[in-house]
Amino acid sequence: xxxxxxxxxxxxxxxxxxxxxxxxxxxxxxxxxxxxxxxxxxxxxxxxxxxxxxxxxxxxxxxxxxxxxxxxxxxxxxxxxxxxxxxxxxxxxxxxxxxxxxxxxxxxxxxxxxxxxxxxxxxxxxxxxxxxxxxxxxxxxxxxxxxxxxxxxxxxxxxxxxxxxxxxxxxxxxxxxxxxxxxxxxxxxxxxxxxxxxxxxxxxxxxxxxxxxxxxxxxxxxxxxxxxxxxxxxxxxxxxxxxxxxxxxxxxxxxxxxxxxxxxxxxxxxxxxxxxxxxxxxxxxxxxxxxxxxxxxxxx
Amino acid sequence: xxxxxxxxxxxxxxxxxxxxxxxxxxxxxxxxxxxxxxxxxxxxxxxxxxxxxxxxxxxxxxxxxxxxxxxxxxxxxxxxxxxxxxxxxxxxxxxxxxxxxxxxxxxxxxxxxxxxxxxxxxxxxxxxxxxxxxxxxxxxxxxxxxxxxxxxxxxxxxxxxxxxxxxxxxxxxxxxxxxxxxxxxxxxxxxxxxxxxxxxxxxxxxxxxxxxxxxxxxxxxxxxxxxxxxxxxxxxxxxxxxxxxxxxxxxxxxxxxxxxxxxxxxxxxxxxxxxxxxxxxxxxxxxxxxxxxxxxxx
Lengths: 300, 298
Fold this sequence. Notes:
The complex is a heterodimer of chains A (300) and B (298). Chain A has 300 residues and is an all-alpha fold.
């Protein structure tokens, strides 16, 4: 140890004493321009929507240039313009719009039925400890079970057609919503609960006027997850047997196109899937959020 | 005014005898029965047993066809049969290896994307445009394309898994990074943290609850996508040539095709079991060791 220290001491360089000095000539301090006017270019570039649109357009341009410039086999990767034309034709001259409507109809039925069942279960869970235990048990078991795995059974029980699709959709929505609503209710603070009791709220009124508003952020989060699961499940399920009930849905359109190796049709279907998902997530749910939890200051 | 009732004067009175105040037992000893039913695990186990018993009795007495609803005992037998005679464990293992590969590559890509997004405004714009577009796109819808590009096999599944993991993880991590408080950011700057260190030592711990949430969502999407991919494209995508045994989804699909419904239920049990293990043990452990220990989540 001591040898170490001496060794290090030996290696230390001599102290250098710097001469004192005065700077003869300090220039005036400069802070640059504190408030410059932004040029037109900068102001336009600062708009979020413009930047995002530019990114989107350049992605499309790269895709188009790659497919045209390198002469990519259209069966593997069709150009953007081809896909777009196919989409346009399928929408306005084909029956894609009916297929989309078919999918959305099934989705809405399944989603609302799932929400309703979740509400019933949750009411039961708030009313009794047995119900609460049951919910905890059932969600822990069924939430990790992908709804699509039930499809073979559903087809056996309800036959080919809309009924089994709805069954699978209910399964995908119910547990996600019940789980997050239940944990949201349990997280409602004791103060809020006692205020409710003080006002003499009981049973249904207590749930509706205290628990639901207080737990709305978690409920909405559950509904969003439930929607995402349902949308994924629906497209997945339609890939299997959408055609059996006559018209078929959006997922079936994609599957059919890929079976016929019409890759531009696959891309057209994907465009529509993206569009619908985008609208639901960023328009529908966003609107609900701004009108409730954001307006009430519960979420930024 | 005239309708106001006349004021009534009640005669004063004294109650003869007020009983002694009684508050009942404040600290009563609970009976054994009450103490047992207060245990969470006991109650939940009872519910499970009741549900299973109802199932068994219903299937026995209502004479439902075995093809519609097999008895619970048959299902349990099928599960054992699957484990010991039909390589069910190997199938689970096959599914899990694909899943883990896709999941971790996805996490890596998401990390790169998010890091780029925190460094520059342009990166952040790219990330938010891509996630807004691709997050609502179910990964399974890409499977037909993946099959075309990568051929049948694990590559195509991994491609779809990547897609199902990257966007939710990147989205949540980015939102988490954005909402790290200004105070913490300034503390980091004060310590002279920059670039990667700033992300690794400051942003990631501060946004860990959201990152973990994104990882959980990504896991559940990936798990759903994997099962769906194996189910939908059945034998064509799993390697089921002799020796190889395919994945868990394939087990369900093949048994459904053979109308061995008890085995289908057994496969579903296996799916539930894996899901419960990952969500309640793996993620719970991570939560306990990080955000709960740091006091960020109760």
